[in-house]
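Dig into my protein:

:::
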Amino acid sequence: MRQIFSDFSPSLEQLFAGAAAQTPADLFQFTSGIFEHKIMQEIRKLHFVQRDDEHALLTETIVELSSMLGTFRPRWGKIKKVHIADQLAGLVKATKWKLEMRGYRYSVETTTRFAGQGILLLPALGELLEQIKNENTKLVNHLLVKQVLQWPVDYPEITERALRSVITHIRRPERSPQTIFSWNDRYQLSLQRRLMEPHLFEQTEIFGCLVKSYVKERTIRKINGKLRKFVESQLSHDEKDQQAKDIIQNAFLYFLEKRQDYIDKVFYVDKKLHSYIFEIIKNRKEIRKVRKEEAQKEIDYPFDACVDSPIMSEEQQVVIKKLLECIETLDEECKELIRKRYFGDYAAPLSYNDVAQRMNKNSKTIEKRGRKCEEELRDCVMTKTKRLGLRPY
């Protein structure tokens, strides 16, 4: 019997013939005139005490419905009125849930103005996130939300659209008319989890930093500390602070210059912004280049000045050259320890404690490792000089 009624039910194309090329406000009026009575019937089942609450839910539900129908405009000929009527109960419940969020109240003028852009942007989203996170700490700690967003044509609204997509049902025109909107407890929990995503703001700022300079600067400041800590831990020379700033700045510039590689068709927001920058820093290998340059400077300084010195005997020069060769056979950590301890611009070798401070590492660990490296270096020099009939100094 229901199928027979569906066959004779008018399509949206027939219902909204006069609204096909009208504004979102006109579509709102058409939707209200056709579905308001049925929506109010569903609202009355919820037994509101205050009439104002009923009216607010009615207005917001019509806004949601008109926005959804506007999204499906190309398929109006295939969607029947009965299909919409079957979905209204779920739509009313979903809208009621969203209306209960703190700060989600708008005037009729505001809701109508946003009707053609999907679900409304929630100004109090930050407050809501904190509230839900505090109430569901354990759940938040186990979340991994992957949100796929289409890169919009209208760049100035990029951050708003990113936020809006997180709190709305993602409407896909390819769905069948019978499933244009669905709402149940499982979907509500899924939406709550998206809202609780702790990295939400940083994810949306990925978009904002690409087009708005002030957002870019704010975002860079926000994550700069995390990046600086990582980069500086990989450097040990005296100018590492400035070098770290340069490396991070270059990585951001590269990210902004190559953004089309990230947002070609679909941008996957499945990680924090600083994770992208981490990858760029590692892939560009700037840290390795800086370490190599600084290591070369530290080697060149003492030996360029003394290996070919006229005040040294030929035998001493040979021994020092063999020492250099042995240093190159050590692993990177040992090389750095030896250079820091013996080849700096100071009168006497540094203590292991001083070396540890320069390398930002534990002094006992450095001392234990340093003694092992020196023993390995000593054995190498002894072996090489004995072959030449020389004695090490």
Notes: Residues 204-284 form one domain. Residues 45 and 89 are 10 Å apart (CA to CA). Strands lie at 147-150, 266-269. The radius of gyration is 33 Å.
